[in-house]
Amino acid sequence: xxxxxxxxxxxxxxxxxxxxxxxxxxxxxxxxxxxxxxxxxxxxxxxxxxxxxxxxxxxxxxxxxxxxxxxxxxxxxxxxxxxxxxxxxxxxxxxxxxxxxxxxxxxxxxxxxxxxxxxxxxxxxxxxxxxxxxxxxxxxxxxxxxxxxxxxxxxxxxxxxxxxxxxxxxxxxxxxxxxxxxxxxxxxxxxxxxxxxxxxxxxxxxxxxxxxxxxxxxxxxxxxxxxxxxxxxxxxxxxxxxxxxxxxxxxxxxxxxxxxxxxxxxxxxxxxxxxxxxxxxxxxxxxxxxxxxxxxxxxxxxxxxxxxxxxxxxxxxxxxxxxxxxxxxxxxxxxxxxxxxxxxxxxxxxxxxxxxxxxxxxxxxxxxxxxxxxxxxxxxxxxxxxxxxxxxxxxxxxxxxxxxxxxxxxxxxxxxxxxxxxxxxxxxxxxxxxxxxxxxxxxxxxxxxxxxxxxxxxxxxxxxxxxx
Length: 468
Fold this sequence. Notes:
Elements lengths: L1 H4 L3 H16 L7 H8 L3 H29 L1 H21 L3 H29 L2 H32 L3 H17 L18 H24 L4 H22 L14 H15 L2 H12 L5 H7 L1 H21 L2 H18 L6 H32 L6 H31 L4 H26 L7 H11 L1
Helix pairs in contact: 2-6, 2-7, 2-8, 4-5, 4-6, 4-9, 4-17, 5-6, 5-8, 6-7, 6-17, 7-13, 7-14, 7-16, 9-10, 9-17, 11-16, 11-17, 11-18, 12-17, 12-18, 14-16, 15-16, 15-18, 17-18
């Protein structure tokens, strides 16, 4: 078992599984015109299909994490990879909206299985600095994958056709299954029959769908229309009912006792808010194409600095974590990201000056996220009880998915609403300001909740062991 723990085979398989969502499924955002032209569907329908993957991932990820603890983390990872293959295959063969939407939902369910289960496998088979290294590679798959998806998706769609994106996804899922095949099963010790919180999941689904419809369709329906207000009311009531039901439920979908641990809570809250900053990508890319006349390829090239910086800095964030603990790199990562986002809101700048500023902004965006990623993930994992690692990882990654989904939805809604009343420059600045607020709130949550010694435990234990 010890020799197995020290191999890179499992890490590589996990990374391949993670990028089926972060690189390939997320690449759909960058091939909208090609997909719309090929399938002949409306932009509204396509936007719904795009958002469904992150939304379904966020809604089911906690349940999948808890399920992984009970029935097996390797088993749930395998199920996730199989779902990824099915969802991608539906997108490869689709000729209309129906299979596109079903395929995107299945991709969301796939991500819900893969993300918490693979983090739990890392916690099980790696310790101390080895675990931090493994989580760095996990972060390269997720944060790095999201950086690559803009460039890779555009290149594949341009030179091979957009369906090839999902053919590659199938190949990587199969490789992931092959690489983790020899991994021993891992699950928590449990007593009695497995029970699932169906009521909690049902309430969460209705609540999140209502909230998503309120944000994404409110401007089209009218913010004071009956349908919009019904969705808002359903979301508010749903949140209240969900919290009340879960707190009194012995078999809860979300174990709120996890949030009594301040480091875990701080990592999860800041993760949600920093993922919400992803709305900047939609606003900035839309603005430079609509307001500045960039092509989709040119706008994708603007973010190349993000890709390089996030990939380069993830291992740096790991090393800073090992030397100083988690709090410092988490704060500085969030600060640098927020500064990068703010630069993209300087839409009053003329042509070349704004282009340079946006390029620098994207680079700082990636630089900050790269520094933040591993310390945040390690803080959440290391502070989770051993019998609830899958569930805790599920909540943490739910924060990622829902943060990204609602950050994009809110930013796009603000951009669209302001566009109807003012210039696209003002609309883009307004959309970016929303994301700056998310970044500031993320910084505050880290400062308030993450203790100074977070992430130093491994170093202190190693020194103590050496001294004894």
